[in-house]
Every structure is written in C-alpha cells, then in structure tokens.
Write a structure and sequence with these properties.
Distance between the termini: 26 Å
CATH topology: Nuclear Transport Factor 2, Chain: A
Number of strands: 4
Strand content: 25-35%
Helix content: 10-25%
Order of helices and strands: HHHHEEEE
Strand order of the largest sheet: 1-2-3-4
Bound molecules: zinc ion
Length: 168
Amino acid sequence: MNQVSKTCPCGSHNPYAQCCQPLHLGTAKATAAEALMRSRFSAFYLAAEGQTALCEYLVNSWHHSQYADKKQALHDLLKSCQQQQWHSLKIVNTEAGGKMDTTGTVQFVAFFTSSDNETVQQLHEKSHFIKENGLWFYRNGSFQADIKLQRNDTCWCGSGKKFKKCHG
Ligand SMILES: [Zn+2]
Ligand SMILES: [Zn+2]
C-alpha cells in the first residue's frame, strides 16, 4: 500500500502531498509549532514504514542543543524507527507556537506498537518548540500519564472512526 498518495498520517484529513510532504521535502516550512509537530509524527510514521530518509528530517527539525553528535542522533533515530509502528496522532492541546511566537508547546498522544509487544502503547508528551531564524524546532518534551479513550473519541488505529465503533 502506498501511503504517500493517501491521506497524511498526521491526521489532518488532507492529502500527504498537500500537508506534511512539502515540509519533509524542504519546499515549505512549518508556520506553527503544531505543524512542525505533525510533520515530525508523519516522518516517524513513514520512516517506520521504510522511508528511512525521513530520519534526517527528524534530526534537522530537532534543536541542535539537544544532542551532542548529529551522526549518533541519526543512528539512534534509525534504530528506534525500526522498532515501532505508529498508528495515529491526537493533539490534546497547543499553547502559543503561532506566527508571532518564538516558543510553543504541543501536548499530544501518539499511538504505537513496538516490535516486541503486541499491545498498543501511548506516547503522551508535552513537547516544547522553539523558533530560530523563522524555523521551528522541536526542543524537548515531558512524558504524561496515558489517557483513556472515551467512546466517542477517534480510535487509536487511525481509521478515523469513533472508538466505540472500531476497537472499543
Ligand atoms: Zn500532515
Ligand atoms: Zn480502530
């Protein structure tokens, strides 16, 4: 299945070609912290499906103050991308991170399965973003407790259906 011509993995309901792909290709830049966050999720998602070149996008959009060595950071990302399968992204909350801001926070839940564990897991994180010279970067994040999906929430699997009508 070719995900590239389909709906963007970030959950925007837009085609990938008109959503996160221009950011991945470097033909557009994220105008908001949330857009960068979404594009990073899409990159993780697609890298795990074999588009490992997107790991470079992940390093390039990660603020350089947060890793000592770029090659090592890339190596670690490649490794972790091979161990996870991503399902969907749920944005919980966004603070600042707009056109006039230089910092922003995006709280999200990303649902994934690890290669060594069938159970669906959550990465619930408050991510901090910083803008430098007009470019947004992911800086760091703090983990939050797992959320409980409600019956009317969108299902974790990425089907777009309500949880109660899907895996609920
Ligand atoms: Zn997208
Ligand atoms: Zn489902």
